[in-house]
Protein backbone atom coordinates (compact mmCIF):
# COMPACT_ATOMS: atom_id res chain seq x y z
CA UNK A 1 0.00 0.00 0.00
CA UNK A 2 1.35 3.47 -0.88
CA UNK A 3 2.29 5.56 2.12
CA UNK A 4 -0.18 8.35 1.30
CA UNK A 5 -3.07 5.87 1.16
CA UNK A 6 -2.02 4.41 4.52
CA UNK A 7 -1.99 7.85 6.11
CA UNK A 8 -5.33 8.69 4.51
CA UNK A 9 -7.00 5.48 5.67
CA UNK A 10 -5.76 6.11 9.18
CA UNK A 11 -7.80 9.32 9.17
CA UNK A 12 -4.77 11.50 9.92
CA UNK A 13 -4.82 13.47 6.65
CA UNK A 14 -5.97 13.41 3.04
CA UNK A 15 -3.69 11.84 0.42
CA UNK A 16 -2.64 15.23 -0.84
CA UNK A 17 -1.76 16.39 2.67
CA UNK A 18 -0.01 13.05 3.28
CA UNK A 19 2.28 13.69 0.30
CA UNK A 20 3.20 17.04 1.84
CA UNK A 21 3.95 15.35 5.17
CA UNK A 22 6.31 12.92 3.42
CA UNK A 23 7.98 15.72 1.45
CA UNK A 24 8.50 17.67 4.69
CA UNK A 25 10.26 14.70 6.29
CA UNK A 26 7.62 14.22 8.97
CA UNK A 27 6.77 10.58 8.20
CA UNK A 28 8.66 7.57 9.57
CA UNK A 29 8.24 3.90 8.71
CA UNK A 30 9.66 1.55 11.33
CA UNK A 31 11.58 4.46 12.80
CA UNK A 32 13.18 5.64 9.55
CA UNK A 33 12.20 8.91 7.90
CA UNK A 34 11.08 8.42 4.30
CA UNK A 35 11.14 10.85 1.40
CA UNK A 36 9.79 8.70 -1.46
CA UNK A 37 6.15 9.61 -2.17
CA UNK A 38 5.67 6.17 -3.72
CA UNK A 39 7.00 4.29 -0.69
CA UNK A 40 5.11 1.03 -0.12
CA UNK A 41 4.19 -0.17 3.36
CA UNK A 42 2.93 -3.51 4.64
CA UNK A 43 -0.15 -2.64 6.65
CA UNK A 44 0.15 -5.88 8.66
CA UNK A 45 3.78 -5.41 9.74
CA UNK A 46 5.06 -1.86 9.29
CA UNK A 47 4.68 0.88 11.88
CA UNK A 48 3.98 4.34 10.46
CA UNK A 49 4.38 7.48 12.51
CA UNK A 50 3.90 11.18 11.78
CA UNK A 51 5.86 13.51 14.04
CA UNK A 52 6.29 10.54 16.35
CA UNK A 53 2.57 9.74 16.54
CA UNK A 54 1.76 6.13 15.69
CA UNK A 55 -0.95 5.76 13.05
CA UNK A 56 -3.38 2.88 13.07
CA UNK A 57 -5.71 1.65 10.36
CA UNK A 58 -9.35 1.19 11.36
CA UNK A 59 -10.46 -2.34 12.13
CA UNK A 60 -14.05 -3.08 11.10
CA UNK A 61 -14.91 0.56 11.73
CA UNK A 62 -18.20 1.73 10.35
CA UNK A 63 -17.72 4.90 8.33
CA UNK A 64 -19.69 7.89 9.51
CA UNK A 65 -20.51 11.06 7.62
CA UNK A 66 -22.38 14.03 9.04
CA UNK A 67 -23.88 17.00 7.28
CA UNK A 68 -23.69 20.42 8.90
CA UNK A 69 -25.39 23.66 7.92
CA UNK A 70 -22.55 26.14 8.26
CA UNK A 71 -23.70 29.65 9.17
CA UNK A 72 -21.92 32.67 7.73
CA UNK A 73 -19.30 34.09 10.06
CA UNK A 74 -17.67 30.90 11.33
CA UNK A 75 -14.42 29.50 9.96
CA UNK A 76 -13.50 26.08 8.61
CA UNK A 77 -10.62 25.28 10.92
CA UNK A 78 -10.13 23.53 14.24
CA UNK A 79 -8.28 26.35 16.01
CA UNK A 80 -8.51 29.95 14.86
CA UNK A 81 -5.65 32.26 15.98
CA UNK A 82 -8.03 35.24 15.73
CA UNK A 83 -10.42 33.64 18.20
CA UNK A 84 -13.36 33.45 15.80
CA UNK A 85 -15.99 30.78 16.16
CA UNK A 86 -15.15 27.64 14.18
CA UNK A 87 -17.33 24.96 12.63
CA UNK A 88 -16.16 22.54 15.34
CA UNK A 89 -17.65 24.80 18.02
CA UNK A 90 -21.07 23.70 16.75
CA UNK A 91 -20.28 19.96 16.99
CA UNK A 92 -20.15 17.69 20.06
CA UNK A 93 -16.66 16.53 21.12
CA UNK A 94 -17.33 13.08 19.64
CA UNK A 95 -17.12 14.59 16.16
CA UNK A 96 -14.04 16.75 16.67
CA UNK A 97 -11.79 14.14 15.05
CA UNK A 98 -13.86 14.26 11.84
CA UNK A 99 -12.40 16.13 8.85
CA UNK A 100 -14.52 18.58 6.84
CA UNK A 101 -15.00 17.85 3.15
CA UNK A 102 -14.17 20.95 1.11
CA UNK A 103 -14.10 24.15 3.12
CA UNK A 104 -16.44 27.13 2.85
CA UNK A 105 -14.98 30.60 3.37
CA UNK A 106 -15.89 32.84 6.31
CA UNK A 107 -18.96 34.53 4.83
CA UNK A 108 -20.25 31.56 2.83
CA UNK A 109 -22.90 29.29 4.32
CA UNK A 110 -24.62 26.01 3.61
CA UNK A 111 -23.79 22.32 3.36
CA UNK A 112 -20.55 21.08 4.86
CA UNK A 113 -19.86 17.35 5.14
CA UNK A 114 -17.58 15.81 7.79
CA UNK A 115 -16.19 12.26 7.78
CA UNK A 116 -13.86 10.00 9.74
CA UNK A 117 -12.95 8.05 6.56
CA UNK A 118 -9.70 9.28 5.02
CA UNK A 119 -10.18 7.47 1.71
CA UNK A 120 -13.70 8.83 1.28
CA UNK A 121 -12.43 12.32 2.11
CA UNK A 122 -9.74 12.01 -0.55
CA UNK A 123 -12.16 10.87 -3.24
CA UNK A 124 -14.75 13.54 -2.43
CA UNK A 125 -12.20 16.35 -2.73
CA UNK A 126 -9.73 15.25 -5.42
CA UNK A 127 -10.46 16.92 -8.79
CA UNK A 128 -10.00 13.64 -10.70
CA UNK A 129 -13.30 12.34 -9.28
CA UNK A 130 -15.20 15.40 -10.58
CA UNK A 131 -17.58 15.50 -7.64
CA UNK A 132 -20.38 18.04 -8.29
CA UNK A 133 -21.17 20.80 -5.81
CA UNK A 134 -24.17 23.12 -6.19
CA UNK A 135 -24.34 26.69 -4.91
CA UNK A 136 -27.00 29.38 -4.78
CA UNK A 137 -25.46 32.76 -5.58
CA UNK A 138 -27.09 36.12 -4.98
CA UNK A 139 -25.40 39.06 -6.73
CA UNK A 140 -25.85 42.82 -6.42
CA UNK A 141 -27.40 42.86 -9.90
CA UNK A 142 -29.08 40.01 -11.80
CA UNK A 143 -26.76 37.65 -13.62
CA UNK A 144 -27.31 37.92 -17.37
CA UNK A 145 -27.50 34.97 -19.75
CA UNK A 146 -24.29 36.08 -21.45
CA UNK A 147 -22.51 36.27 -18.09
CA UNK A 148 -23.79 32.79 -17.21
CA UNK A 149 -22.41 31.46 -20.50
CA UNK A 150 -19.02 33.02 -19.74
CA UNK A 151 -18.93 31.06 -16.49
CA UNK A 152 -19.63 27.83 -18.37
CA UNK A 153 -17.01 28.62 -21.03
CA UNK A 154 -14.40 29.35 -18.35
CA UNK A 155 -12.94 32.54 -16.89
CA UNK A 156 -9.47 33.51 -15.70
CA UNK A 157 -9.59 33.90 -11.91
CA UNK A 158 -6.00 34.99 -11.29
CA UNK A 159 -5.51 38.02 -9.06
CA UNK A 160 -5.61 41.06 -11.40
CA UNK A 161 -3.45 43.01 -8.94
CA UNK A 162 -0.65 40.44 -9.00
CA UNK A 163 1.55 41.07 -12.07
CA UNK A 164 3.28 37.70 -11.62
CA UNK A 165 0.10 35.61 -11.33
CA UNK A 166 -0.29 32.84 -13.88
CA UNK A 167 -3.47 32.19 -15.85
CA UNK A 168 -5.95 30.12 -13.82
CA UNK A 169 -9.12 29.05 -15.60
CA UNK A 170 -12.22 28.06 -13.66
CA UNK A 171 -15.62 27.10 -15.01
CA UNK A 172 -19.08 26.02 -13.96
CA UNK A 173 -20.45 22.82 -15.47
CA UNK A 174 -23.97 24.31 -15.31
CA UNK A 175 -25.55 27.67 -14.47
CA UNK A 176 -29.29 27.98 -13.85
CA UNK A 177 -30.81 31.45 -13.69
CA UNK A 178 -33.56 31.49 -11.07
CA UNK A 179 -35.83 34.23 -9.78
CA UNK A 180 -33.45 36.52 -7.93
CA UNK A 181 -30.42 34.24 -7.81
CA UNK A 182 -28.34 31.81 -9.85
CA UNK A 183 -27.46 28.18 -9.19
CA UNK A 184 -23.90 27.20 -10.12
CA UNK A 185 -22.63 23.62 -10.35
CA UNK A 186 -18.86 23.11 -10.01
CA UNK A 187 -16.66 20.03 -9.99
CA UNK A 188 -13.61 21.59 -8.33
CA UNK A 189 -13.05 23.25 -5.01
CA UNK A 190 -10.45 25.96 -5.58
CA UNK A 191 -9.96 28.58 -2.89
CA UNK A 192 -12.82 31.16 -3.00
CA UNK A 193 -13.50 29.92 -6.52
CA UNK A 194 -17.01 31.30 -7.05
CA UNK A 195 -16.17 34.70 -5.60
CA UNK A 196 -13.15 34.94 -7.91
CA UNK A 197 -15.23 33.79 -10.91
CA UNK A 198 -17.84 36.44 -10.27
CA UNK A 199 -15.20 39.11 -9.83
CA UNK A 200 -13.68 38.10 -13.17
CA UNK A 201 -16.95 38.85 -14.98
CA UNK A 202 -17.68 42.06 -13.08
CA UNK A 203 -20.25 40.86 -10.53
CA UNK A 204 -20.29 41.24 -6.75
CA UNK A 205 -21.71 38.51 -4.50
CA UNK A 206 -24.21 39.43 -1.79
CA UNK A 207 -24.73 35.90 -0.48
CA UNK A 208 -23.38 32.43 -1.25
CA UNK A 209 -24.87 29.14 -0.08
CA UNK A 210 -23.81 25.57 -0.89
CA UNK A 211 -26.94 23.45 -1.21
CA UNK A 212 -25.58 20.07 -2.30
CA UNK A 213 -22.37 18.05 -2.45
CA UNK A 214 -22.10 14.85 -4.47
CA UNK A 215 -25.90 14.49 -4.68
CA UNK A 216 -26.36 14.97 -0.92
CA UNK A 217 -28.88 17.77 -0.40
CA UNK A 218 -28.85 20.27 2.46
CA UNK A 219 -32.62 20.35 2.49
CA UNK A 220 -34.28 22.11 5.43
CA UNK A 221 -31.55 21.48 8.00
CA UNK A 222 -31.42 24.69 10.10
CA UNK A 223 -28.27 26.81 10.21
CA UNK A 224 -25.89 25.67 12.94
CA UNK A 225 -27.43 22.19 13.12
CA UNK A 226 -26.03 18.81 12.01
CA UNK A 227 -27.14 15.23 11.47
CA UNK A 228 -25.60 11.92 10.44
CA UNK A 229 -26.25 10.75 6.90
CA UNK A 230 -28.72 7.90 6.56
CA UNK A 231 -27.41 4.52 5.35
CA UNK A 232 -28.97 5.19 1.92
CA UNK A 233 -27.30 8.61 1.68
CA UNK A 234 -23.96 7.13 2.72
CA UNK A 235 -24.24 4.35 0.13
CA UNK A 236 -25.08 6.90 -2.57
CA UNK A 237 -22.05 8.96 -1.56
CA UNK A 238 -19.69 5.99 -1.63
CA UNK A 239 -21.01 4.67 -4.94
CA UNK A 240 -20.57 8.10 -6.54
CA UNK A 241 -16.81 7.94 -5.85
CA UNK A 242 -16.49 4.22 -6.68
CA UNK A 243 -16.05 2.88 -3.15
From TrEMBL:
GO MF annotations, alphabetized: RNA binding; rRNA pseudouridine synthase activity
Q: Which UniProt keywords apply?
A: Isomerase, RNA-binding
- Pfam families cross-referenced by the UniProt entry: PseudoU_synth_2, S4
Q: Where does the source fall among the domains of life?
A: Bacteria
Asked whether the keyword Isomerase is assigned, the reply is: yes
Which Enzyme Commission number(s) are listed?
Answer: 5.4.99.-
Query: PROSITE patterns attached here?
Result: PSI_RSU, S4
RNA-binding S4 domain location is 1-63
- EC main class here is isomerase
Membrane-spanning segments: none
Q: What is an annotated GO biological process for this record, any one? A: enzyme-directed rRNA pseudouridine synthesis
Say which family it is in: Belongs to the pseudouridine synthase RsuA family.
PANTHER family referenced in this protein's UniProt entry, alphabetically: PSEUDOURIDINE SYNTHASE FAMILY PROTEIN-RELATED, RNA-BINDING S4 DOMAIN-CONTAINING PROTEIN
The protein's name is Pseudouridine synthase
- Which species is this record about? Fibrobacter succinogenes (strain ATCC 19169 / S85)
UniProt gene name:
rluB
Amino acid sequence: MRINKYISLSGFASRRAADELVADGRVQVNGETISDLGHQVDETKDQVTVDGKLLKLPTNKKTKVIMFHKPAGCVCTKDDPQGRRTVYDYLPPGYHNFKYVGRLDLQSRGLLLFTDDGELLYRLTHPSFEVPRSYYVWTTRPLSESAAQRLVDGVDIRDPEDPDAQEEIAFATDVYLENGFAELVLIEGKNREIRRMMRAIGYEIRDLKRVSYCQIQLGDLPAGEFRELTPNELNKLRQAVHL
